[in-house]
Each structure stands twice: as C-alpha cells, then as structure tokens.
Design brief:
CATH architecture of the largest domain in chain A: 3-Layer(aba) Sandwich
Number of helices of chain A: 17
Distance between the termini of chain B: 6 Å
Strand order of the largest sheet of chain B: 3-2-1-4-5
Helix content of chain A: 40-55%
Largest sheet of chain A: 5 strands, parallel
CATH class of the largest domain in chain A: Alpha Beta
Order of helices and strands of chain A: HHEHEHHEHEHEHEHEHHEHEHEEHHHH
CATH class of chain B: Mainly Beta
Strand content of chain A: 15-25%
Strand content of chain B: 35-45%
Number of strands of chain A: 11
Oligomer: heterodimer
Number of domains of chain B: 1
CATH topology of the largest domain in chain A: Rossmann fold
Radius of gyration of chain A: 21 Å
Strand order of the largest sheet of chain A: 2-1-7-8-9
Chain lengths: 366, 73
C-alpha cells in the first residue's frame, strides 16, 4: 500500500499533468534553468522532461558530472602513477575510460598496470591492507557527496596505521563552479540544485548565488514530479522577481545538512584553487589534503613526471559543461564520439550530457 | 556518480553496519552518521551511510527499492 502511494506521488501521470498545467499558466517569461548534477541530467532526459515543457522554459546541463569535470591533467597524472611498478591504482569505474592526452587508464591496464575498479574508497583501503608491499592509490573524484567518504577513509587509514594507502584528490565543491558560470556571463535564471550534495552541505551554500548574482536555486529530488515541481518553483521565483534558495527534496535534505560529515571533510581537506575541464582554474573550488594527513596524500608521497597536456581537437566537452553548447552542436557527436568509442569525458560517463543525449535524444520520448 | 540508495540496517559492529539494499546485503561504514541503530534506514553512497532517514522517509526508501530508481549528485 505504501509503495503504491509513494509511486503515485512521485511518478503519477495525473500529478505530472497538473504541475505541467501550472507551469504553462504561470510561466510568461523566457527562463533558462540549469541542472548541476549528473543524476538530474540522466533523470531529465530519461523521463523526457524537456519535451514536456513550454518553449520558453529552457533546460541546460552544467558541470554536475564529476568524471566530466575532472581535468585531463588529473587523468594524465593518474596514468603516470599507474605506470609506477609498486603501485596498485584503484578507481571508480567511469574514470577508467576517460581519454588522457595520449592514453587512458583502460589502455594502461591492458598493458599490464595494476588498475582496479572499486565501489568504495574502503575497498581500496582493504586492498592496501592485503598488499603491504604495494602502494595503493585511490582516485578521489566527486563533489561534497563523495568528499566526506574519502576523508573518512583517510581517518580510518590513519587510525589503523595503514600507511601504504593514499588518495589523489580531485574532489571539488559545487558553489564556486556555479558562481564561475555567472561571472562568465552565461545566462541562467535558476539552478536545479544537486540533491545529494545538499544532503551533506545543507542549503546555505547556494545563498551567495541568489544574493550576489540574482540566481535562485531549488534543491531537487530525482523523480519526474520532483524535477517538475522544482522547475515550477523556479518559474515562480522568476515571475515574482525573487530569486532565493528553496528545498524541494526536503525528504532527504535538511537546511543544515549532515554536520558530522562536514566536520570530517573539514578535518582532512582544505580549500584550494582547482582546475575544471572547460573552466580552467576556479579559485577555492578544490579539496586538497591537509599537511597533518600528508602521509596519505598521493601528491606528497608519489613523485611522477606528468606528460604535457594535449586536449582533443574538435571535442567541445568544455563548452557543453558550461551550458554554452548542446551536445548535438558537436560535430563529433554520434559520429566519431559514441559511448562505445568516446572522445570526450561527457560521452564516457553514464551521467555526462553527451551520453544522456545519445541514449535518450533531446527528451521527446513521452 | 553520487549514486545514493536507501538501505536498512540489519546489524552493527563497531562503526560498520550490515545493510540490506533490495535484499542484497552490503557492509557500509557509519563513520559519517551519529546514533544509527539496527532497523534504521540510511542513505548509502560509495560504502558509507550519508544520512539516517526519518520514519516518514522510509516510505521513500520502499519506493526506491521498488523502482531501483537512479539517484545521484
């Protein structure tokens, strides 16, 4: 019974129709909304949401896919580390296929490097415990959702005295990238806010966007009713001329977030400038490991020579990640670049905008 | 990437819990949450519980399990 009720609540066609009707009624102005979460990118396209909306409501994908925003320099560094003889490199699955300047982790594994896909940084720690003669490196990518898990694993390594484990951190935080888009002059009227990032951070981190840039943010869940409801809330903000931060996904996001996870993140990481694919360096957007935990910092304990970065010609992933261009505007899209033979990171990742467009078209399924 | 799924805690030993995700048993860390107990539902991300879901959220958990809904960042 409960299942029926909740299913009806979040995927019910009648409810969806009602929200769409309200969107049509209330929306008079052109409005550009951006999602900054790979899960939202997939959900929006999977459920065919762009095709349901009136023409004046425009949806764009932003820098919400951690694999996609990880810069090529990071991939090249990971490859250089994997090539070291005494190293076992551990990573989340998607990253393995992202092309570096001249190779990829997948190619390096085929050549004999010990590269293993793990589900959790804790699995990497377990591998370190089982292989004391090896240096086990975990590639830490992801936003505020994932960063506290890497931080907790470092604390666990420290407590258990597992010194042959280390983290190569490319962890990032969302708000500076969202602000960078505003500074770059990209027209966005509202953000569909990332649900699970906000589970950790709470809602306050987006206030600066409303206060300083006039861009509202509604933190959204991942079901069609959630997403449409968030779009409606953003339309109301625009029509009333009152950009603000609101939580649609209140069943998982509390205003203050998970304060214990925030403390653990703060204990292990400090904020530093970081390079994002398509954006370049964004001030204070990356999480680096504090000196206190330098023993578990791959950048400190492993010295490698990284090859010169060479970006792929013709790939417009950088423009796609900023919402400047749609995947379909790329001349490689669906020709040279497909999920089977990806050229850019946005096609590799199952959450990338190019991958979503390839699988589901531009949301005209429903 | 930030795939997070609700799971029910079956048992706890130190800071690790055995949880059930749609009948599949997993071991997850409770390091990031306070006062989790067996029977609680937690939102799980890459081997860690990110948050304890309140009673009303449990219906949500059931919904996720029914649909294996994708959830992310």
């Amino acid at each position: 019974m409960t299942k029926m009720l909740t299913t009806q609540t979040y995927r019910d066609k009648k409810k969806i129709g009602e929200i769409l009707e309200m969107i049509r009624k209330r929306s008079s102005k052109k409005i550009r909304l951006m999602e900054v979460c790979g899960g939202h990118t997939m959900a929006i396209h999977k459920f065919g949401i762009p095709g349901l909306l009136p023409k004046n409501v425009i949806l764009k994908s932003g820098p919400g896919c951690p694999v996609c925003v990880s810069d090529q320099k990071f991939i090249d560094r990971a490859i250089a580390i994997a090539r070291k003889e005494d190293v076992i490199l551990t990573t989340f699955g998607d990253l393995i296929r992202v092309p570096g300047s001249t190779s990829s982790l997948e190619k390096e594994r085929a050549k004999g490097c010990d590269i293993r896909i793990v589900y959790s940084s804790l699995d990497a720690l377990k591998i370190a415990r089982q292989n004391p003669e090896k240096r086990v490196v975990f590639l830490g990518i992801g936003f505020e959702t994932t960063a506290p898990t890497s931080a907790a694993t470092i604390l666990k390594a420290s407590k258990s005295k597992i010194d042959n484990f280390c983290l190569l951190s490319a962890h990032k935080i969302m708000p500076p990238a969202m602000e960078a888009l505003a500074f770059d002059g990209i027209r966005i009227d509202g953000f569909i806010g990332p649900g699970h990032v906000s589970t950790i951070t709470g809602s306050g981190i987006y206030q600066i966007l409303a206060d300083n840039h006039g861009i509202g943010c509604v933190i959204s869940g991942f079901e069609p009713v959630d997403i449409l409801q968030s779009i409606l809330m953003l339309i109301n903000q625009k029509e009333q001329g009152e950009p603000k931060v609101e939580i649609e996904y209140s069943r998982a996001v509390k205003p203050k977030g998970n304060e214990k996870a925030q403390r653990i993140m703060e204990e292990v990481f400090y904020l530093s400038d970081d390079c994002w694919r398509g954006f370049g360096d964004i001030p204070m957007s990356g999480l680096k490991i504090r000196k206190k935990y330098a023993r578990w910092d791959a950048e400190k304990v492993l010295h490698v020579t990284v090859e010169k970065t060479r970006y792929k010609k013709g790939c417009i992933c950088g423009e796609v990640l900023k919402g400047k261009k749609s995947p379909t505007e790329c001349r490689l899209f669906k020709s040279a670049c497909t999920p089977a033979t990806p050229i850019g990171a946005c096609m590799v990742s199952s959450e990338g905008a190019c991958h979503a467009h390839y699988l589901y078209g531009n949301g005209k399924l429903l | 990437m930030c795939l997070s799924v609700p799971a029910k805690i079956l048992s706890i030993k130190d800071d690790m819990a055995e949880v059930s995700v749609n009948g599949v048993r997993l071991e997850v860390s409770l390091q990031l949450v306070d006062k989790a107990k067996p029977g609680d539902y937690v939102l799980v991300h890459t081997g860690y519980a990110l948050q304890i879901l309140s009673d009303e959220d449990v219906t949500l958990a059931n919904k996720f399990m029914e649909h294996e809904s994708p959830n992310s960042t």
